[in-house]
Design goal:
five-stranded antiparallel beta sheet, 116 residues, globular, mainly beta
Amino acid sequence: IKHIAYKEPGVLRVIAEEIQQQDGGGRMTVTFTGSNLDKKDFFGKSDPYFLLSRLQHDSTFSPIYKSEVIKRTLDPHWRPFSMDLQTICNGDYTRPIKFECLDWNISGKPSCIGEA
């Protein structure tokens, strides 16, 4: 994951498994972990979470999943989650998806840690 302004990049690791369903549809189980993320909080580390978005036909990205916030870490291990492939790409396996790693702030305005 590339920090927006900065030093050595952090690392994002993705583990994904596609599961075929009896009705012909598919489901994907995904696990995201990060290491060496950028420190965003002045007195501490970061409180990272991520947004996963898919590209729409009008060239905008729409969020399809938001993770839980993991407090005070630069090496998060988010819970695995499952999602229908229809939700992720609407049957278009070449459709871009965007991953944004954000730092949760009490003010409600997150700080961007990086995106891919």
